[in-house]
Amino acid sequence: MLTITPIPALDSNYFWVIRPTPNSKMVYVVDPGDATPIIDYLDSQELTLGAILITHRHRDHIQGITGLLERWPVPVYGPDSDSIPQITHKLGDGDLLRLDGISFEIIGVPGHTWEHIAYFSPSSATSPPLLFCGDALFAGGCGRRFDGTAEVMWDSLQKLGALPEDTRIYCAHEYTQANLAFAVEVEPDNQELGARFEQVKRARAQGNITLPSTILLEKRTNPFLRCQQPSIKIFVENKSARTLATHAEVFGALRLIKDNWPN
């Protein structure tokens, strides 16, 4: 049975450790922003690193690569980016990566950054479908738009929203409570969203992780996947004081509102 373990680090990051089977001593890590907690965890579990998977160039996702390579000189998979010189195997939209029986379909998801990719593993005999999406999609939210247009990022989120609804989402940050606090302002009449927010508040008060999420849950409660909903369009138009013609325009305006929203 494949297992996925979060390593909390930095301010809010999770570095994901993928173990193909319970007896496997070789594991893979996604977006290591700091080498030390990963080395400590692997040593404590008597595990060894087999490869590093990277989604995008931001430092809190890559600054642990060098330290890990000093200990384990392993392949580094990730996007083609001059900002990540340690990448040994460059991946892009439509590529297929296979590691120790785990297949990953690579999905290009530009918008947060231009080179951002996600790793999607279809369902198997030992696992439901899995998605490692970095900062493209969060539980209850999405990453800030740094590169490209709103249309580009909206299209990226639509790719993720079209994945099987039971796909488990392993994003890179514990932002869920803050994201849902904003979401309930956008959709105050969404009862499922309200119930999720209360559940997440209880979980965080107890120090529990709120991930993974699922595609189905995000489609029902994440406003950034729901910009086609009339109520969200009305909220965004009222806040931005202008008429918006397309779902992508609604998304872009909503993301700007969130950027300036008090946390």
User: Helix fraction?
Assistant: 25-40%
User: How many β-strands, per DSSP?
Assistant: 14
Number of domains as seen in the coordinates? 1
> What is the CATH domain class?
Alpha Beta
The CATH architecture name reads: 4-Layer Sandwich
Low-confidence parts, pLDDT < 50 over ≥5 residues?
Answer: none
Tell me the Rg in angstroms. 18 Å
Quote the average pLDDT. 96
By CATH, the topology is Metallo-beta-lactamase, Chain A
Major beta-sheet overview? 6 strands, mixed
The number of helices is: 9
Strand content: 15-25%
Structure overview:
- The longest helix is centred in the last third of the chain and has 15 residues, at 191-205.
- This protein is of the alpha/beta class.
- The chain has a single domain (3-259), classed as Ribonuclease Z/Hydroxyacylglutathione hydrolase-like (Metallo-beta-lactamase, Chain A).
- It has 9 helices and 14 strands.
- Strands 1-2-3-4-5-6 form a 6-stranded mixed β-sheet, with helices on one face.
- It is 34% helix and 24% strand.
- The mean pLDDT is 96.
- 42% of the residues are buried.
Please outline what is shown here:
The protein is α/β, with parallel strands linked by helices. The protein is built from 9 helices and 14 strands.
Helix/strand layout:
Blueprint lengths: L2 E7 L3 E7 L6 E5 L4 H10 L3 E6 L5 H4 L2 H7 L4 E4 L9 E3 L4 E4 L2 E7 L8 E5 L8 E5 L2 E2 L2 E2 L7 H12 L6 E4 L4 H11 L4 H15 L7 E2 H7 L8 H11 L6 H13 L4
Parallel strand pairs: 3-4, 4-5, 5-6, 10-13
Antiparallel strand pairs: 1-2, 2-3, 7-8, 8-9, 9-10, 11-12, 13-14
Helix pairs in contact: 1-3, 4-9, 5-6, 8-9
